[in-house]
Amino acid sequence: MATEQRRSALVTGAAQGLGEAVARRLHADGFRVGIADINGEAASALAAELDATGETARALEVDVADVRSLRRCFADQEAAWGAPDVLVNNAGRTVKRSVWEIEPDEWDDVLATNLRSYLVLSQLAGSAMRERGWGRIVNMSSFAGQQGGLVAGAHYAASKAGALVLTKIFARELADAGVTVNAVAPAAIRTPAMGGEEDAAAVGRTIPVGRVGTSEEVAAAVAYLVGPDSGFVTGATLDVNGGVFMR
Ligand SMILES: NC(=O)c1ccc[n+]([C@@H]2O[C@H](COP(=O)([O-])OP(=O)(O)OC[C@H]3O[C@@H](n4cnc5c(N)ncnc54)[C@H](O)[C@@H]3O)[C@@H](O)[C@H]2O)c1
């Protein structure tokens, strides 16, 4: 596909983990991808791997907990490719902490990183999408936001529950403008933090599907939600959890 015909996507927290898998998948699907992350070095390495010319993949160093940094990041992508057609809010901070031990500063930082950043970027991207008459926003939530979480702290779970509500609010605001807003709620996805094969297998035995999920499976859910066949799906939460939580 010629570069000028490619839609553009902005993916936060895209230097590793689920965000990286999303960035790789969307790039493979023909999007120009802005790889936004606080780890600028890793973001640059991924962008260079995807497209050394920078025409279809660009790194953006950003601290999503810092509103000025977020606005700079958005403006940077806008200057290069125009406002994004697709926004994937994914950057997040997971903190394991007993609810009795959460300090207010840590609460504020987790909420700023995981939720306020979704608000600010959705405001910026959503306005441009509305004007353009097409857009896709996907918010990475979590099983923790639905059920309170097993290991992650209350601040993390609250931020992920907030992301689900924010999804519905923006979905309603933008529904008549060709813009869909959806959430993905993963659980039990294989990550480096999960340990080796044996640990993953042990976790897998506790899951109805009998195994842990992969970041590529989460990326495939995002690819569907930003793709051509999902225009009638908005305000929804797509659970990618191996059946751990059914509703
Ligand atoms: N992995 C799972 O099993 C799982 C399950 C449910 C939800 N999630 C959600 O998926 C998203 C990604 O999770 P992951 O497991 O890939 O995490 P991860 O820690 O592997 O990756 C997170 C990425 O976000 C970046 N990041 C962190 N703070 C940032 C900040 N302030 N500014 C910019 N970038 C920042 C990190 O540098 C990293 O590249 C998160 O929102 C997480 O809550 C993950």
UniProtKB/TrEMBL annotation:
Q: Which InterPro entries match?
A: KR_dom, NAD(P)-bd_dom_sf, SDR, SDR_fam
A molecular-function term among this protein's GO annotations: oxidoreductase activity
One Pfam entry name: adh_short_C2
Q: What keywords is this UniProt entry annotated with? A: Oxidoreductase
What residue stretches are annotated with the Ketoreductase domain?
A: 7-192
Which domain of life does the protein's organism represent? Bacteria
Q: Which family does it belong to?
A: Belongs to the short-chain dehydrogenases/reductases (SDR) family.
Protein name, as recorded:
SDR family oxidoreductase
Q: What is the lineage of its organism?
A: Bacteria, Bacillati, Actinomycetota, Actinomycetes, Micrococcales
